[in-house]
Amino acid sequence: MSVSEQILQQYRIVDGSLWLGGTRAAELAQRHGTPLYVYDGEAVVRRIDRLRDALPAELALHYAIKANPMLPLVQLMATHVDGMDVASLGELRLALAAGVTGADISFAGPGKRDEELEAAIQAGVILSIESPLQLQRAAEAGERSGKRPRIALRINPAFRLKASGMHMGGGPAPFGIDEEMAPEVLRQAVQLPVDLLGLHVYAGSQNLSAAHLIEAQDAIFTLAERLSVHFPQGLAWLNIGGGFGIPYFAGDQALSLSEVADNLHKRVAQLNQRLGQCELVLELGRYLVGEAGVYLCRVIDRKISRGRVYLVTDGGMHQHLAASGNLGQVIRRNFPVVLPERMPKQGEPSSSETVSVVGPLCTPLDLLADGVELAHAEPGDLVAVLQSGAYGLSASPVNFLSHPPPREILV
Ligand SMILES: *Cc1c(COP(=O)(O)O)cnc(C)c1O
């Protein structure tokens, strides 16, 4: 079986068919056409509830819109999380349109344009300052807007989150102000017409190791405490980042949330004891939505080339770059792929064959799954790429080869 039990367990499977949000996946594909992204709202809410149960109540949960900016999903999120993290004017507008108040939004990202700074200041969002010049420009934008910017310094830490899908920190980076420079930049901030509220540290992404996340979080709390002396009003806000990963590939084990949460209980209590009232934020993207999304496409052709079976589908890398392995994977590995009308059964070796699932694009990069075990499929059959709720459509080159865009639905 090419998909782990841990991943399959999340799904409702009836008589070998995959169901999503109370409807058979095949029925959804019939109704809405393929290719189709389906996001299961209940699965998202369940994930948030489980997090809330585990995490300290003082820790605000933010959704990083970058992971999936589909408006109905962002609107659903708005009613279940405490705030959102945005990284562009477009994302800021989405968060505001979804009903999030400016005070519950933080805005990270290098290269913020004047227009973005001004809109953020108007809305009262917390700006994560990524460079000394950005600090100056934020202060100037505040003067033009007649409103004091609310700012946090984003720190590029000297440590890094080990074994992360994507590292941020530990070396030179366009993100954040180097830890070594932070005291000097904080001294400058105190002199400027800005409200200096706190710190933001984002150490990495897609991490499945509780031990490594704990190590990074400990380092972040220690760093925050050390830098807190540079805040004349005290440290009022601390965004500790996130980086919680989800299993994608063969051998991936789901993150042990309880271990990470236990440590956070200790560190949050300690920080509040030492520094007094400080608003704490955990920002998660993929962990909230990644497992709740499925990408459905339909087989157009089945061909055998020199012994290899190819299923050519109407979906591909132009709509799901991550599954094709071209979104930051060092070694290409397969996303979990299934036939939604012939779901693998537990402990039962289904009659299967080894196939490659490709898209319609004229490039060898257009590969959705390479050499996976699937039940026999023919043109007309559906293929589903699981774990596709984050960094799917919005992280894909949809215009490449000029095919029509896929639909997205929230069920
Ligand atoms: C991308 C990003 C996130 C979200 O990362 P996930 O891996 O989706 O949780 C959060 N914060 C910042 C600053 C980011 O750049």
β-strand percent reads: 25-35%
- Provide the domain count: 2
Low-confidence stretches: none
Largest sheet: 8 strands, mixed
Quaternary organisation: single chain
Helix content range: 25-40%
What's the structural blueprint in terms of helices and strands?
Blueprint (H helix, E strand, L loop, with lengths): L4 H4 L3 E3 L2 E4 L2 E2 H8 L3 E4 L1 H14 L4 E6 L6 H8 L4 E4 L2 H9 L7 E3 L6 H10 L2 E4 L2 H14 L4 E7 L9 E2 L9 E2 L3 H10 L3 E7 L2 E2 L4 H18 L9 E3 L17 H19 L3 E6 L1 H4 L3 E13 L2 E6 L7 H4 L12 E2 L13 E7 L8 E9 L6 E4 L21 E4 L1
Parallel strand pairs: 4-22, 5-6, 5-15, 6-7, 7-8, 8-9, 9-11, 9-12, 12-14, 14-15, 17-19
Antiparallel strand pairs: 1-2, 2-3, 4-16, 10-13, 16-17, 16-21, 18-21, 19-20
Helix pairs in contact: 6-7, 9-10
Supply database-style keywords:
single chain; about 400 residues; alpha/beta; eight-stranded parallel barrel; 22 strands; elongated; binds pyridoxal-5'-phosphate
What does this structure look like?
This protein has 411 residues and is of the alpha/beta class. It has two domains: 3-39 and 291-410, Lyase, Ornithine Decarboxylase, Chain A, domain 1; 108-284, Alanine racemase (TIM Barrel). Helix content is 30%, strand content 25%. It is built from twelve helices and 22 strands. It has helices at residues 5-8, 25-32, 41-54, 71-78, 89-97, 114-123, 132-145, 182-191, 210-227, 257-275, 286-289, 321-324, and strands at 12-14, 17-20, 23-24, 36-39, 59-64, 83-86, 105-107, 126-129, 150-156, 166-167, 177-178, 195-201, 204-205, 237-239, 279-284, 293-305, 308-313, 337-338, 352-358, 367-375, 382-385, 407-410. The strands form four sheets. Strands 4, 16, 17, 18, 19, 20, 21 and 22 form an eight-stranded mixed β-sheet that branches. An eight-stranded parallel beta barrel has the order 5-6-7-8-9-12-14-15, surrounded by four helices. Helix 6 packs across helix 7 (132-145) and helix 9 packs parallel to helix 10 (257-275). It is elongated, with a radius of gyration of 23 Å. The model has no long low-confidence stretch (mean pLDDT 95).
